[in-house]
Specification:
The protein is built from two helices and no strands. The radius of gyration is 20 Å and the shape is elongated.
């Protein structure tokens, strides 16, 4: 009976874990893009700008 309880909660645990991982990746990516895009250091800003153009993403 103990193994049935573990198997029943396992898929829900995986779903929660995947959701948290996706949310954390989104937050990290957003922070990196925002930080690089609005950086006052010209080299960082220009690198972000060049990556956007190389990915065919219009920025202005």
């Amino acid at each position: 009976m103990h193994s049935q309880a573990i198997t029943a909660t396992y898929p829900r645990t995986i779903a929660i874990s995947k959701g948290l991982q996706l949310f954390a990746a989104f937050l990290l990516g957003s922070a990196l893009i925002y930080g690089a895009g609005f950086s006052h250091i010209p080299a960082v800003h220009n690198a972000a700008h060049d990556v956007r153009h190389s990915a065919d993403f219009p920025c202005h």
